[in-house]
Design a protein that fits this description.
α1 packs antiparallel against α2. The chain is an all-alpha fold. The protein has four helices and two strands; from the N terminus they run ααββαα. 1% of the residues are buried.
Amino acid sequence: MNLFEIKQEILNVYDNLIDVETGEINEEAVKQLENLTVQREEKIENTGLYLKDLKYKIEALKEEKRNIDRRIKAIQNTEEFLKRRLSDELKGENFETPKTRISFRKSTSVKVDDDFICYAKHNGFENLIRTKVTETADKTALKKLLEAGENIQFCSLEEKQNIQIK
């Protein structure tokens, strides 16, 4: 039985706890209620333990991911270093053996100096400037104002219950 079913069963037992005709407590219902209460507590405890286990697994996987990311970054740095070293050594000259072939291809990229934005604004190149703006509410500052009693339209404090499993 899941927690919802146990809760429903407890409510059903409460309905039959007292005999309507005699006013006596139904001993069978009391035993059933105790049994359901134990089942409920075990289910809650087991769910809590399972959540605790999941939390530890998540943390272990995050740590493993950090370690893998560090290893990837180290290998990428080595790769870039070796590419630069070969490029400096070969100076654009192709190299080939039966096991490997190293060649160069030309490409063109745009280098933009820091002064370009000012130059573009004053010389008719505004269309070559992109502006990225992201607006978000400063929730920390809003919380301080709301806690101080400020009434701010479209904002309110929301009380939550956050489960802690240790």
